[in-house]
Design a protein that fits this description.
Elements lengths: L2 H21 L2 H16 L6 H19 L5 H13 L13
Helix pairs in contact: 1-2, 1-4, 2-3, 2-4, 3-4
Amino acid sequence: MTNLRAAAYRRVVKTLRDLGAAKLWPAEQACIREAADALLFCRDLDENDARHAVAAVTVLADDLIDAQRWTPLRAMQLLDDIWACGPSAALDVPRAA
């Protein structure tokens, strides 16, 4: 774990705390937390838990945008913070949203 990964994780947690139940349902909050946790504690993206969590949070971000609950910019900021929780190799993988 690096300081950069820890800082990214803190940004994700702050986003969840700031938005809370007003903007995200409990299952959505859990999905975001699971993705950040999976990336924070993985050594590389070959780990199935990390891959599944990233796929789920990417779908969630798309759903939030499609439902016009979040702007594309807000969703991209969250995905960027989640990706930054992972190993440096995660930063080289293209994101979807």
